[in-house]
Structure formats: structure tokens, C-alpha cells
Amino acid sequence: MKTKWFTGLALAGFLLCASAALFAHHAEVVYDHTRTIELKGKVTEFRWTNPHAAIHFDVQNSQGELEEWIAEMGPLGGLTRGGWNKTTIKPGDEIEMESYPHKDGLHRIRFIRLVVNGKVLRDRDGD
């Protein structure tokens, strides 16, 4: 009896931990998909890392000050199928993007359309 109870408790704990990791990884819900914003800036860093690549860039605000922004991207497998690699974007590149803003007003976005030095790039293969 104690063995079944312990096994059930262990299984419940495992499922709870596994589901938390799954929801943490798929964080599209933090972006407002009901509206878009457009940003122009200069790339400071391109992180080609799992589970998602990211573009760090500076945007000049209306007061002329630089703001640091981060554009979250899809997984490397999808980016690779879409023609991306770790050198597709480099520090100093000029970018323009249409994006979903973060719901909490953070300088984090999920981009929809990206123009790098005049060339249109897509986040996901097939998009």
C-alpha cells in the first residue's frame, strides 16, 4: 500500500514539474497579439542559442535616448530551415521590424517581419 502511494506521489510530482517547464518554455502568451509596433534600431548582439535565438538592439526614443530592446525568435531548427545561421545578423546591422509588444511594457518583442540592411527576413520557415 505504501509503495503504491509513494509511486503515485512521485508520478504526480514529476508531471507537475514537467508541465511547469513546458509552459515556461512556450511563453508566447506574454506578447500582445492584438496589436503591433514598429521599431528601427541597430543590432548590438545576435544570440544563436537554444531554445530560441534573440536579437539585442538599440532604439532611439522620442527624447533622443537609446533604449535596449530584445527580439525573441523561434527555435534554431526552424530558423535554419528558413535560411538563417549564426552570421545572418551581425552587430551594427540596421534593422526595422513589425512586432508584437510585451504585455507588461518591457522592451521585449516577438517580431513578425524583419528587415536587415534592406533585406526582408522571416522568423519561421514558411512564414
Structural features:
2 helices; five-stranded mixed β-barrel; alpha+beta; 24% helix; 2 domains; single chain; globular; 127 residues; 6 strands; OB fold (Dihydrolipoamide Acetyltransferase, E2P)
Description:
The protein is α+β, with helices and mostly antiparallel strands and 127 residues long. The chain folds into two domains: 1-30; 31-121, Nucleic acid-binding proteins (OB fold (Dihydrolipoamide Acetyltransferase, E2P)). It contains two helices and six strands; from the N terminus they run αβββαβββ. A five-stranded mixed β-barrel has the order 1-2-3-5-4. β1 and β2 (54-60) form a beta hairpin. The longest helix is centred in the N-terminal third of the chain and has 24 residues, at 2-25. It is globular and about 65 Å long. Mean pLDDT is 82; it is low at 17-25.
Helix content: 10-25%
Mean pLDDT: 82
Computed CA radius of gyration, to the nearest angstrom: 19 Å
Tally of domains: 2
Per DSSP, the total helix count is: 2
The counted number of beta strands is 6
Give the percentage of residues in beta strands: 35-45%
Query: What is the annotated CATH architecture of the largest domain?
Result: Beta Barrel
What best-fitting shape do the alpha-carbon axes yield?
globular
Which structural class do the helices and strands define? Answer: alpha+beta
End-to-end separation in angstroms reads 54 Å
CATH topology of the largest domain: OB fold (Dihydrolipoamide Acetyltransferase, E2P)
Strand order of the largest sheet: 1-2-3-5-4
